[in-house]
Batch of 3 targets.
Target 1
Amino acid sequence: MHRSGAAMAWNVFKFCTALRGLGSIMILLVLGVVGVTYYAVVVTNYFPALQSGSSFESSLVALFVLLLFHCLLAMLLWSYFSVVLTDPGSVPPNWRPSVDEERGETEPLAGSEYNGAVMGVQQLTAIGEPTNTRVRYCRKCNQLKPPRCHHCSVCGRCILKMDHHCVWVVNCVGALNYKYFLLFLFYTFLETTVVTLSLLPHFIAFFTDGEIPGTPGSLATTFLAFVLNLAFALSVLGFLIMHISLVAGNTTTIEAYEKKTTPKWRYDLGRRKNFEQVFGTDKKYWFIPGYSEEDLRRMPALQGLEYPSKPDLDSQEF
């Protein structure tokens, strides 16, 4: 039994190491798909159609497709690199709870109280005894964990409001970049849908008897781009629907798994407030990867350390 557990731990370690090693490969893969798509839509089909000016209608359609394609591509890449380059949120050094739950005080724990709480949690965790559910401790990081914080084995640290580790963005998705990840999914779905629809007539032409203009290389690129974008549009749609439901319930992928038997959720404050905890209250910033200074100043949830909850469900903690 012990050898089996050790082998499992070793396999998980190798898997996490492999995920870390993907790194730039996944970024290059994403950029490669973007490059193939750009060549098929812009270089091979719609820019030549705009230049030829065979008819006013075809030129207008080509111009519309090119403008929409470039606008969505810019938002997609902005959102993507925002997820890649933004730290998802780490536990600050010597972080301590700002509230003593047992006494109902709102002042941070004093030094002696804080050290005692840490030692108590460490001791109970070490012997397998149940601990105070409001005090969570990470044995790998040797520190207290804020609410909704989880340890990522790939990143090797605790992540604030961790949702999952995404190989496509080579980063964890957490409190500080979850909005950017959702926008990446949103703009990816829109972009791949636009590309699929714009290349559909060219794809259908492959199965007709008429002669298809273009070189073998350009035709192959168009065919490949259509198939790739159709596949991405369908798969991303599923992920987008799932995350929309998670945002509506103010939960994460990890929390949805952990609380699958819990009928009520302490952080579910209603769809609008749940939405604002991810996207902020300023509507001008809802569709761009960023927040207004006002929202960052007055909404602690955007910082990943404090979250408003239902008073009658305060005993819950994940």
Target 2
Amino acid sequence: MYKTKCDNKLIISGEPEPANITEGCGSLGMFLMKRLLRHGNEVAVTSFDVPAVVLSVIPWFHAFGCLTLINVLCNKLKLISLPKFEEGLFLSCIENYRCTLVFVVPPLMVFLAKHPLVDNYDLSSINILLCGAAPLSKETEALVKKRIGVKHILQGYGMSETTLAMLVQSNARANKSGSVGTLQAGSLAKVVDPESGQLLGPNQPGELHFKGNQIMKGYIGNEKETDATIDKDGWLRTGDIGYYDENGEFFIIDRLKELIKYKGYQVPPAEIEAILLTNPKIKDVGVVGFPDEAAGELPLAFVVKQPNVTLTEDEVRQYVAQRTSPAKRLHGGVRFVSEIPKNVSGKILRRHLRAMLQRPMAKL
């Protein structure tokens, strides 16, 4: 199977093989992948004990949206699908259709936690909020639970390359706040030191590697990238830093390439963002490293203020300083912006934020 140079058609030669062609949402832009569904290879489908009314705004071309649709069909559930996110429409659908299960991404969780419009709608029908596509902080999770009283907020972890979820929380067990759940049946996982390649044990952060029949066969027409992602033993390198605890629950820290290197310390931007989002004056935030000759990189925050509030750079810096270790403080400063650039799955586009560092500062 290969992709022609003149168009996006795929030509299958020899015996036809089942394949799933997925649009990736990573920083490299669109890529095509083929997953060979070997004999005995099954994608885990979540079962529901009671009828559910599902609301989803996740695009179907995204792996999260694709598997959401498969789950709904397999379980014969009612699906309310929105072509795009609109604040009032999203909230009114929950209220009018009494949605019990809502698939969300972290920006939607921030919306539920902080937007004033949420108070105007009855969201009491929601039993489960299932969040994926990007890390959700325990701080944002707590804010949503406190505000709308939802019983279960579940997380999962997966990639387009892994046919979605490798890790998932279950509402049948007590989940630790901030975790992304336990390993799915038929899957293998290990945590590896990204520099030495040494295998790490419980509560030791490192790069997550996965293995199983649901791992993609490779990137179509890109053998070099495939070899860099999947080793000779079939282990897929995720590029994500995380760890598992003594109970087998996994926690995601950040992307390996996004860690800020400050004076030899590795600073996860997501950790600082989670702290800042607990500030009621802050609507949204993104953190990157600002290049510095002496320290390497300085943590810097792009902040979106809530409407009609007064917030200074010093207030923001002090807010973080009071809640973190010295290495994780905003040594690079604060820039106020109108919005944080994100892709369709809700991941912060940090390369866009870094590009903004080259522009003159605007007064907001």
Target 3
Amino acid sequence: MIDQKQQLQQKTFVLGYPGFFSHRCMGDLVSQFEKSGLNITEMICMEVSEVFAGEHIVNIGWDPEAYAEWSPEAERTAEDEWNPEASNGNLPVASRKWVDYLASDPVVAMVVEGDDSVDKVLELTSKKQLPFWVGNNKRPTVYASKSGEQAERDISLWFRPVSLREAVDAQGKKVVFMLPKGLVYGPQKEVEDVLQQDESYALQEPLKDNFFMEYMSVFLIKPLAFRKRCVGEILDAIEFNSFGLRGLKLVKKAEHPSKAWLTDSDSDGETDCDEYGVAVVAYNIKPCLKILPGDIKKIHLKNEVFEIGSNYLHKSDPGDDVLEAAAEFFEYGFTAWAYPNHALLFGCMFQASFVGLDSLP
């Protein structure tokens, strides 16, 4: 992650595909970057629309019309003609299907910095093994920019600041924003009306109760983990001991003041505002994931151990206050929307990408 004293030289872009969450390899990926001397300087988990996914396909040089009407025969033809060396390991999938995949579940967009970061990341992602490949090493889990110029285009597409007011104005007819203290923006009734079209969907009141919020906890991986370069290990432990992640974001202390940053040595409540952390929302946390006071760490995983210290990690209690805890780091609160043609509810505790959702139907 971020070496806070190092002057970073080159930026590249990495996109973790939706399969990251089902395979629980986000922590492993961060560890690979840390071991290679690379630093993640921007990271956010987001949902994107099919239209935005199509923009990404065009941006990386694929033809979005080539396989607009996807068929098994088209995909077989694409795979038969695939050259791994020429494509830097990216599996060619019929564009229509690939667009559907990117829009099907959360993705993780990252800016990775360091000396020769473009080449280093491409070398890592070319290894046909976890965390960069799954499915008997036949399908990649990430996209990585192929050059510095491509990285600039990718970062410009995926990252840009959007205020809540801009987001509400742009998404007011599509996305519902649920914030602490009962604040709700957006077309809640319209979203609920869409869901009620599906007889198999048992809509609960209020809307936020449809997302298992009572089982969620908010974690903050603290600056000590950055200094010790063990952010990936701690994230791995959270993934290993939860049913899944609902939010992930690199945060700066100066921009997100919270008591969660405090460590045992911060007796006066003052901390270095230039430091970074990783905010994580996870649900159904196993009771064996405990946070002991002080430093500690250890971890190990498969044969267990853990023992992460409070100077490395903060955890909020699950329950009704989780929205307030999350909103300290995910300023747009809980977002929800529905696709009329699917009658399905989408949404997440993490800060949605209003870049990625600005083309919702």
